[in-house]
Amino acid sequence: MNRFILVGIVLLTLVFIQSCSPASSEGTPSVSPAAYIENKGSDTIVNLALAWAEKYQSEHPEVRMSVTGGGSGTGIASLINGTVDIANSSRKIKEEEIKEAKSKGIDPVEFVVARDAIAVIVNPENPVSQLTLKQISNIYSGKYSNWTEVGGEDRPIVRLSRETNSGTHVYFLETVLRLGSKEDKTLFSMDTLLLPSSEVIIAELRQNPNAMGYDGLGYVPKDLKVIAVAKEEGGPYVLPSIATVNDKSYPIARDLYMYTNGEPTGVVKEYLDWILSPEAQEIVAQLGFVPASPTPNPSP
Amino acid sequence: MEKSLSWREFAITRLIKASGYSAILFVVLIFFFLVREGFPTFGEVGASSLLSIRWYPIEDYFGILPLITGSLIVTIGAGLIAVPFGIGTAIYISEIAPRWMREILKPLVELLGGLPSVVLGFLGFLVLSPFLRAFLNLPTGLTALTGSLLLGGIAVPTVVSVAEDALDAVPRAYREGAWALGATRWQTIWRVTLPAARSGVLTAIMLGVGRAIGETMTVMMVTGNAPVLALKLGSLFSPVRTMTATIAAEMGEVASGSVHYHVLFFIGMLLFLISLGVNIAASSVVFRAKKRAERILS
Description:
The structure holds two protein chains of two kinds.
Chain A: H1 2-20, E1 36-41, H2 43-59, E2 64-68, H3 72-80, E3 86-89, H4 95-103, E4 108-122, E5 130-132, H5 133-141, E6 158-162, H6 167-177, E7 193-195, H7 198-207, E8 211-216, E9 225-226, E10 228-230, H8 242-246, E11 253-261, H9 266-275, H10 278-286, E12 290-291
Parallel strand pairs in A: 1-2, 1-3, 5-10, 6-7, 6-8
Antiparallel strand pairs in A: 3-11, 4-8, 4-9, 4-11, 4-12
Chain B: H1 2-38, H2 41-44, H3 47-50, E1 55-56, E2 61-62, H4 65-96, H5 99-113, H6 117-136, H7 144-168, H8 172-180, H9 185-196, H10 198-214, H11 217-222, H12 243-251, H13 259-297
Antiparallel strand pairs in B: 1-2
Helix pairs in contact in B: 1-13, 4-7, 4-10, 5-7, 6-7, 7-10, 8-9, 10-13, 12-13
C-alpha cells in the first residue's frame, strides 16, 4: 500500500517537473515569456476576468496573467499606484480618483467590457410580479413593510441585501433606493438582512415567501421569481435579459469596466481587443452577464 | 556528569518558564496592537456617533450599540442553552452513566466539538432557520434565536468536556462519605460533587461562553446581520448583527488606515475587553471559593 503511494508521489512529481520546465526545447522560442499582465479589482467581475484570462492564456501561452479580486476601489487604487496593468471596476471611476491619478502621472482610460443587470427576486409563491423603482425604493427604505402595500398577500416583507462592502449593494443604493439622485440621502431600512453571499440570499428566498432580494442576473437560479421593473408608474414593466439590458429598457443595469494607464499598447492592447471580440464576449453571456453592446467603448 | 545534569535542568526549566511567559507576552502584544489600531477611533468618531443606533459604515454611520447588544443577546441565549445542557451531560457521563455508555458518549461529544463551525452554519441556514420560521411563524428564520441555538450547540462540547474532567477529579471518598450519611444520589451530586468541582465547572462555563461570543462564521450565516438594537425579549426572534460578524464581513474590503478600519479594530478591542472581563469575574469567584475552602479545612 505504502509503496503504491510512494510510486504515485514520484510519478506526480515527475509530471509536475515536466510541466513546470519551460517549453524551451520545443514550443515557442521566438516569443519572450516576459509578457505579463496584472489584473485586479471588482469581485463582481473576478469570475469573468478569470474565465477570460484562462481562455486567453490557453491560446497565447507566451502571456502570463494574474487575476485577483478585492473590490472595485482596490483595483482602481492599485492602478493609481502603478501596480497593475488593468483595473476591473463595477462602477465608473470617480472624479477624485481621476484627479489623484493625474497627480501621480497616471491617465486612466476606460473600457466597457460587459454589462450586468441586477434582478429583483422573490419566492415563487409570491403573487407580486411587477414593481416600479419607486416601490422597490420604498420597500428597501422601510416605508412599506407589508406585501399588501404593493398588491401582494398579507405578509411582512423581509428585505435581503448583500453586505455593504459589495459593489452591488452600493449600486443598488444609488440607483434604486435613491433613484439616481445625488442629494437623496435615503438609507436601507435598519432591519434589512445583510447576508454574506449570494448563496445565502438565494437559499433564504427559496424557502421564505416573505423575502425579497436582489442579485446579479447571472446568479439567479431558474426556480426563483424575477420581478418585472418599471422606471415610472404605468410605464412598461420589463424583465431583465440580454435584450432589455442592451436596449436600455431594463432600468437596473450597469456597465462593467476595465481601466488601463493611458491608451494600452502591446500585449495589454491585444488582450483588451480580444476581450471585446465576439469570441470573448460569448464567455460573458455564458457566465450570465450581458455582452457589451455591439459598439463598445463609447468614448465621450 | 553532575554538572551536565544541572545544566540540562537549568535549560529545561528556563524553556518551560519561557513558554509560560510567552502566553502573557502574546496577549499583551495583541492587546497593544488592537489599541494602536483602534484608539484613533476616539479622535475620528465622536462619542455621540459611536453611541448612536445606526451602523452603516459606507455612509459614515458608526453606531456600535446595535452590534454590542446583538452580540450580547446571542451569547446570553447560547449560554442559557449550553450551560444547563452541558453540565447536565457532564453529570450524566461522570456520575450516572454505566462505564460502557461513558466510553461511547465522551468521544462522541468531543467529536461534536470538532465539527467546523461553517458546517454548522450551513445546517443552520438550510435546516434550522426554515424550521424555526415555519414553527414559530416568524417573518424570517434568520434570527438571534437561530444563532443562539447553534452557538449553544457549539459551546456544549466544550462545557461537557471540561466539566466532566472536573467532576471526575473529585475524590471518590467524598461521594462515599455522602452516601454513608444517607444522602441520595441526587443529593450527593448537587450538594457534594458539584460544589467540590466548582472551580472546574466554572472554567467550563467560561470557556463555553468565550467560545460562543467569539464564534464568527456560524452567526454570520444565520443571524441575518441586520444592525438593529436588541433590547427587548422579542429581539431574540428578529435578526441581529454581532460584533464578530461585522468584523469578519467588513474587514476584507476596508481601506487600511481609514476611519472604518479604526472602528473595526475598536470593536475588536471591545470584544477583547468583554472576554477579559468574563475571565476575571470567573477566576475571582474561583479564587474566593478556594480561599474559603482553605480556611475551612485548616
